[in-house]
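ok so I'm stuck.
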Amino acid sequence: MELKANWFEIKGDLQFTYDIVASLVLFYLIFQFQKQGKRFSIKKDIIDSKIQSFIKRKKIIATILVPLFFTLALITLINWSLEISFSANKLPSFDEINNLFFDEFFTVLILVDVVLLIVSFFYTDKFHRIIRNSGFVVSTILIRLSFGVSGLVSTILVVVAVLFGLLIILIHNQYEKSTMPKTINKK
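replied:
not stuck anymore, here's the structure
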């Protein structure tokens, strides 16, 4: 950063401004996403056995992912440390440091998301739920793509990914709301 009068003419300062604005937008979008995600949460006592089975499979996959990601992070750190020690005269840029772990991390997430999407076909045939789950895969792919570019395009891809996920859940919730049976209050 260079704190000068021509702030918006300096590439680094401009990127910093984009990142700060994107952080605020992302914070708000994630807040809205969390809020919408809780709208139609199902109580545990009314979950049918098919859904319980699907949840059990998701928990198994999550349990496998924790040590996998830890191992991936450790291997990445060791390889990066060895690379630095053998080429001490050239340190990697910050862009490269961000991509070290997250490229593989999001690639694994996309593969797991696709597997979960395929598994979900065995538990539901409701198109709006399948579209919702597919939308989350698309959001993850957009985030992964953001690591392949830099600057404003990267920032825009991340914001669009979260915005896409939010729009998917908003549309899903509207569909759920419109198809829920109306209850009549009797006194």
